[in-house]
Amino acid sequence: MKVTLVGNFNCVFSQRINTKINIMTTETFETFSELGLSENILKALTEMGFEKPSPIQAQGIPVVMQGADVIGQAQTGTGKTAAFGIPVLEKIDITSNSVQALVLCPTRELAVQVSEEIGRLAKYMRGIRIEAIYGGDSIDRQIRSLKKGVHIVVGTPGRVMDHMERKTLKFDEVRMMVLDEADEMLDMGFREDIESILADMPADRQTILFSATMSKPIMSITKRFQNDPILIKVVRNELTNVNIEQVYFEVKPQAKVEVMTRLIDMHHLKSLLVFCNTKRKVDEIVEDLQLRGYASEGIHGDLRQQQRSNVMSKFKAGVTTILVATDVAARGIDVSGLDGVINYDIPLDEEYYVHRIGRTGRAGMSGKAFSLVARDEKYRLKSIEGYTKVKIEKGVIPSYEDIVGVRKARFVENIAASIKEADDQELYNDVLEMLHHAGYSTEQIVGAMAKQIMGVQKNEYADGNMAWEERRGEREGARREGGSDRFERRPSTGSRFERGGDRRETERRGTDRYAPAARGESRRSEGVSRDETRRPSAPEVGMTRLFLSLGRKDHIMPKDIVGAIAGEANIPGKTIGAIDIYDKFTFVDVPERDARAVLRAMDGNTIKGKPVQIDIAK
Length: 618
Fold this sequence. Notes:
By secondary structure, the protein is of the alpha/beta class. It has 21 helices and 22 strands. The strands form 4 sheets. An 8-stranded mixed sheet has the order 1-8-2-7-6-3-5-4, sandwiched between helices. A 7-stranded parallel sheet has the order 11-12-10-13-14-9-15, sandwiched between helices. The radius of gyration is 27 Å and the shape is globular.
């Protein structure tokens, strides 16, 4: 019995989930040609730089080609797109103009990326037509394209549902259905859409599902919509790439931008992804970096599709060297050759850390992953180390003198190269003489030029300590005192998309943030719980606070509340504000203009099957 091991992966092949039988492959596929692929596909793979199949490709392609329903459990960056894209292309009948394969993706960015990669795989297959459909793009243009005839549709659930309702997308001839990043789509509130789409498919179709996790909702979908599926599981021995240097720095929050720019200069990072937890922070960091002279752009859910496309085009072309993004906006971004990743904020989910740093150090190249850790983020870093089973080393913040020295050396190198390459040097040789006549020495002239070109400015951090100091007796990972769970909207807290019109694909409704509020101390009387004595902070201006009769004991989560209110009251989930979940009740902030509509819509309604009473909080 042979099991293919490539890099840091283990493969479990052909495990039928409806039985207790594990069937292991007896073959090891070292090249794509051994998989029996067409010459056109092999030619495209060679041109794309693929030398040998990844584990998910080596194990998945043969099974999908045989027509079996498949569940692929694999992390981002394992080569899933080619694992289903190649069999899809091999099975297309170009003599028919009908849609023969549908690929569902959670975000517009991922839909574009998947369609582009399948397009590159189909480069030498004449007549293959692929269309990406997603919110933010002209639906009229998409309709015209679909009417001309498309073989493969890659889309987001909301926009696919739009076309289904308009009768502009028909599934009569669909033979393959792919759910990519299925767990993400469920987290974003698309379960009903996915089930509606699957129910509208021909019964004899082949269904391929890829997911990083095997949650109960995922298993429910597989049981209902797949026929005796085969599980192909690709797990990493270590969830982080051995080619990535992982270092964290203890940094005061107000000094993070300064430390980040020093790391960029010290390590000469020319292509960099910076991750933040909130959209607002993305905008703030981009502004700070641009003021310091760094070519940076930001990407988050508030940008229109055209703006996103422009930002990504400049980053891929090297015009922009630093891309600042939220986790959700960055899903689907696949840029090769990144020098590093900086976690400006420590992610709120351990798995996000894996996704973030996995974007550097690919294809055998080395990469750097730096994390800027404020004092209140230290416990999150410990959780990440436990999750990844990797010790992240503590780094020393480069000093102002270090950065000046690095820039001096780089300045000398650039000047030396310019002298060697210049063919019109004589035009500028008299500048030194002119400055001498003005009364300046050669040392003064060179020093002033170096300072101007190097751009190093001494600021309030030059001689200060930017690292926070451990408090005496502070224990890392200590539990904070009980109280309410205050949510300012975690990325995965997603409401359903807005209903009606062209459904906009959303960025997991909310503000991309889940931040437990600081808990104030309250005196506890005998028989009085902390929940009953602690008061939440006042709602923001323009918001109304509502009282809900369900709480932690009812096992409700923010996404349950957001989904119910947004879905029943027909308001955008992103407008819902802070959520305070107590043991027996919950406070939630909604816009004043929508408060009455929410009360009417939720009257007599349920959340997670439990009746809920809702009123304006007193």
